[in-house]
Structures are given as C-alpha cells and as structure tokens.
Amino acid sequence: MKTWFITGGTPGGFGPAYADIALERGDNVVLTARRPHLLADWARDHGDRALVLPLDVTDTRQIREAVQAAEERFEGIDVLVNNAGRGWYGSVEGTSDTEVRRSFELNFFSVTELLRAVLPGMRARGSGWIVNMSSVAGLRGVPGFGYYSAAKFAVEGLTEALRHEVAPFGINVLAVEPGAFRTRAYSGFADEPVSETVDAYLPFVESVRASMVGQDGRQPGDPCRGVRAVMDAMDQDEPPHRLVLGAAGYDAVHRQLEGMSEELHRYEAASRSADFPPAP
After folding, report:
1. What does each C-alpha distance from 247 to 133, 136, 139, 243, 272 come to in angstroms?
2. Which pLDDT score is estimated for 190?
3. Is the pTM higher than 0.85?
4. Catalytic residues
C-alpha cells in the first residue's frame, strides 16, 4: 500500500482523478486544495484512507505543515503528484510583471518547495515517486501563453536534472505533459477580463481568450483515462521519463521534435564550427 500526496484538488481536475484511482488500487491518499470544503463529501466517502488538507502551494509554511501532517498520518509519502497550477494568457511583451511573477510562483516555485519538503522522507526510506504535471506547453511554446510555457519549460528542465540526482536513492521521476483535457482549467477564462498592457496585442489576446472559452467542456482529453495511462506507465519495469497525454498533444509534440531534429541536422556544420580547432 502506497501513500499519495496530491496537490491541486479542485473537483473535476487531474488531482481528484489521481486520488480516486489511487484509492481504487487500495492506496492511501492525501489530497490538498485551497478550498478544502469542496472535498468534504468526497473525504467522508473514503474514510481513514483519505485525508484532505488545506494548501496554498505558494505558501512555504503551509507546504511544510501539510507534508508533516501527511507523514504523521500515514507514516510517510510514497508518491508526490505536483499537479497544482493554472494558465495565464497574454502577450510576452504586454503581460504585467505582477502576473508573470504570480505565474512562476504557482507553476514553478511551488514545485521546488514541495520537492524540498517531501524528498527527505523519500531519501530516508530509499524509495519514492515524483510525478510532475507539466504540459504540452512545456515542450512546445504556445503563443498567448508565453509565461505559462516558460514556467512549464522550467519544470521540464528541473525534472530532467532531478531524475538523475535522486536515482541513487531509489526515487523515480516522471514528467507528464497533457494536452487539452476536460477539466475546469478553461472555465475560469470566461470570468477573467483581458489585462493586456500593450494595445497592439489586444485583438490577438482577445482571440486567445475566446478560443479557450469556446473549447471549455469540449476538450478531447479524459482526466481519468489520462491518470490510468500515467499509473500504467509507472508500473512498467522500465518506466518512461516523460509521458505526453492526448492524441492532439502527441501530434503537436511529435511535429515539434521532428522540426527541431531536422533543424539541428541542417545546422550541424555551424554548430561544430564553433569549437577551437583540434590540436595538431
């Protein structure tokens, strides 16, 4: 029996999907949320194997308290799912500094703080899993979501380095890159006004917002199917380092990587010409 610590417990999202399927497998679950009262009925249905904790992942003190409470209740954390996050839309030039910093605090720095809180226990036990929920936008920059993409690219780089650093301690690390999934991620855009500081980008940014609102409820990805794919991957003898979720996401990443590979080869001579000449 494993204990899962899952952030981002908003109903209808990936967090509860992870929680439900982990419980279905017979594991214990700690599910965190900024509004834990929304999960009260869910927690009662699962008895002693489920614990809901309040957590604002941008608050380091709350992170430490939640991890301590989870470890005391279940005697350790076996799987950390860094799922909390959200997108901010806007142009690269015209997004305010405040919004940029908010995006990185939630989508990147919260991940680092949770890792620092959970990894000591995993190292002491010599085992564990870290699942960092990234995005297709972490492998392929999305116009209109430049800073969200940047934060997810940062998560990708962090995850890649972490994987090598913690492997000697028996800890596995997986990056998960969903495409468009039918969570509530897009629903908030309808009530969120455009806040663009450069008027020249307003038509573009408004079109991005309209597109997101229009897709809400029609995204092709199923969170439960996505989570089952992740757990199946974790169960493999040689689990993957990253897993793209969704057919459209797969196609987008495949095109991106193919294009990068072609360009890399096309400019191979230029790349190699930048070194000092070989010694005679």
Report:
1. 17, 11, 15, 12, 36
2. 67
3. yes
4. 134, 148, 152
